Amino acid sequence: MGSHLVYQERVEKFLRRVAESARSVLLLDYDGTLAPFSAHRARAAPYAGVTGILQRIVDAGRTRLVVVTGRNADEIDPLLGLRSPLEVWGAHGVQRLRPDGVCETQLIPSRVAQALNQTKHWLDDEGFKELVEIKPGSIAVHWRSLNGAAMAAVRSKILGRFQETRQNCLTFLEFDGGMEIRMADLDKGDAVRTILEEIAPDVPVAYLGDDTSDEGAFQALEHRGLTILVRPRRRRTLAQAWLKAPEGLLLFLSDWAEATETSGRGGAALSSVIARPHVRR
Predict the structure, then answer these.
(1) Tens digit of pLDDT for each residue in 153-177?
(2) What is the value of pTM for the model shown?
(3) 3-105+186-275 CATH choice from 3.40.50.1000, 3.50.50.60, 3.30.2130.30, 3.40.50.150
(4) Is 84 exposed, middle or buried (CB count within 10 Å of its CB: 0-12, 13-18, 19+)?
(5) Is residue 176 within 8 Å of 211, Cβ to Cβ?
(6) CA 136 → CA 31, 70, 104, 192, distances in Å?
(7) Distance between CA 116 and CA 85 in Å, rounded?
């Protein structure tokens, strides 16, 4: 049996569990997963068709739908345009915005806040102010709008500064189109672990993400649920599977919606746009 067929059976088995379960959990990154990257972050609309399928999943009433994002939590609902607010974990898990509008924010230690403030002033002094996004517990520097040479220069300068100061309370993470300087010892994996503590052990859970910032979430869910890398091209990852965006993403979400709209039928077979990833052992 080919490796693709083994993979397809694995996903279909998972979706049958979703169909047979009274409750399920679907965790989704936003930028690069539900939406293509955009140089204008405020206009990063989801892929065509995503909002409608997610609304079907919400309307079925059997899935806890959660967005886990590097963005500020309050940016997601206006972009997605669903009829009711979702649960959103923002700033890589620093924020938790509940559907009722209550937002909980992790306490930022004073030494972290001080180190981030110093970094912000340095970025401003270097002329990078227009590239900077300030978030709870982190600073993102977006260079997607720059040409290759300018991007490389900004990246080199920031890395040099980070290595020079060696502030152990901060870490940095490169993402598709920029770099984030943030509080160490807190990532999307912590959000996933909190959610897992809140649900029964037999509830099916899946996480879909695209970037290196999602690897902590893949690892947290490795032995508990289904983890899927969503990208136009696959890369080395801890995720168990790869979906090509946007075609594979839309098919998977449609299968999930069908699984929760029916009872006992399981998910429909997925398309051949889905393939096995390079999985790190």
Answers:
(1) 999 998 888 777 777 788 888 888 8
(2) 0.84
(3) 3.40.50.1000
(4) exposed
(5) yes
(6) 18, 10, 11, 19
(7) 31
